[in-house]
Amino acid sequence: MGSAEMCRDLAPEIDRLLRSANSYIKKKAALCAVHIVRKVQDLGELFVSAARSLLSEKNHGVLHGAVVLITELCERNPETLERFRKTVPDLVQIMKGLVISGYSPDHDVAGVSDPFLQVRILRLLRVLGRNNETASDAMNDLLAQVATNTDSTKTVGNAVLYETVLTVLDIKSESGLRVLAVNILGRFLLNNDRNIRYIAMTSLQKIVVTDHNAVQRHRGTIVDCLKDQDASVKRRALELSLALVSASNIRSMMKELLVFLSSCPLELKAQAASGIFIAAERYAPSQRWHIDTILHVLTTAGGDVRDETVPNLIQLITNTSELHCYTVHKLYRALLEDISQQSLVQVACWCIGEYGDLLLRGECQETEPVQVTEDDVLDALETVLQSHMSSPATRGFALTATMKLSTRISDNVDIVSIYGSCIDLELQQRAVEYNALFKKYDHMRAAVLERMPVIQRNSSGQNIFTNVLVCDLLDLLSGPQEPLQPSLAPAQPISTTTLMLDRFYIWTQKGFILEHNLDSGLLATLTASNSSDSDISSFTLQAAVPKVRLSVFVSELEQIMRNIKDGSIGVDGLSLNLFLILKYEITGINREGASTPNSLFLSFFKSGHDVLHLRSFSLFRCRTDLIEVIT
Hints:
Blueprint (H helix, E strand, L loop, with lengths): L3 H14 L5 H17 L8 H7 L5 H17 L1 H7 L3 H13 L7 E2 L2 E2 L1 H15 L3 H17 L5 H16 L4 H14 L5 H14 L4 H5 L2 H6 L6 H14 L5 H14 L2 H18 L3 H15 L7 H11 L4 H14 L4 H20 L12 H13 L5 H14 L7 H6 L6 H15 L5 H4 L18 H8 L21 H5 L2 E7 L2 E9 L2 E8 L8 E8 L3 H8 L21 E8 L34 E3 L2 E3 L3
Antiparallel strand pairs: 1-2, 3-4, 4-5, 6-7, 8-9
């Protein structure tokens, strides 16, 4: 209860009482000194000498207070720690006396001689032996003796053993002693007390990286703890089981983990599914086994997996071309059985859209032959579209799959058109875009809806269309720095607010203003003006052009048209999610006459100074036939 000022005033008196002839006073003075050291750390040096002398006392109460005081001093001052490392032999002798001593009615607790003092000495030895080989060697024999002679049938004995294990694992102990410590924790796993099982798994989890083989010997016991009724024990057992998965035991461990996933509490499903995905990706013995495992998880806990699971599985399926037929058949059957697991349904819809024609061939040798017709496939997708359990994202997958199947099995224009008036804006937008493909751009539909190429995995932190490149795209007054790359990621949904803006500035710098006017959903006008005193001698325009429009775009470049009014550039045509980034430099931008001194006339010069009108040219990233401004 004493304040820092009171501790400073009484510290000399406490030091004097530590040398008292009365053991009771010494014990109380030692405990008071502990409080002073915790309150005012710089007063610890005052008690070093007295604390060292207290280790020669025979009274257990005084010894207990002395050990606690020395522990506090060592933890707060590295120099004091080095000085007290010389007391390791004394502490070892005190501990040996407690271990081999006979029955003492004053200190015996359930057959263990003064377990409180033993635990305190073991904690001090752990502090003194940490990162010091000499001190660790001096206590190795003692720790082995305590580990083998302490009764583990009583809670008191388990407390001493647990402290011994922590000390062995924290100091520079011998390898055989560490194995002995792990085996003690393994015996704890068989204890009926759930608290003991819990702390055993907590300790094993800390050392599984450094002593993996030693912990691996107790894998069966750890897996059995997955069946425990206590949720905390289950969680620890799950974490430890996932840490024990390796290339040599992946099949057996995954069977146990999948069984656990099917019956575990809801609060553990997400953690279990995530751990299974990571282990399967790291140690999968084959691609088919990997796909089967993930599909099993999606079937069991599809609503509890992370968002990145769907694209990761799609990438895995795309990269294993030899399993496309097997995978699409398996996903089709899973879709017919259950459409409540949204992640599973999304992957199934994607695969059916990409490889639905393989369902009709019936050539898959690895699955039971099933006769599937075009109507069966379309009915399955329409069931997903109409189900109340389907999320908007899942309906989007199903609608896209229906669209892609139009180039593989039959035209589905009726199904697509129905959702053109859907209340969900994302779904409505997709339907309108796809319907435009059927009607206005039917000649391009086969190329647009061809199968996806192999998807390359991006490393952490890698983004093909980075912010730096976007900023470079908008920096129209500077020269080109590095070529931009096409974005492979689907564009984000466009807010209606962006599309409702009639006019706004997208770039201003040093008197140069680039103004954007959106006259309709398919026409964007860019107007540049110069309010500075000097002419602009160089101008670089960068644009995102749909990849599918590239061939048409190149032919349009050859068409020479004059009289570009007001320096505006129009956008006309269908745009999809893949873009080719192009750069065109304007050789000069000259100011107009005195009547309109602040206007610019933008001219694109070809050989012979012919002006080009680029109908598909834009400073925007487009998603289908709508425009999303990159700002």
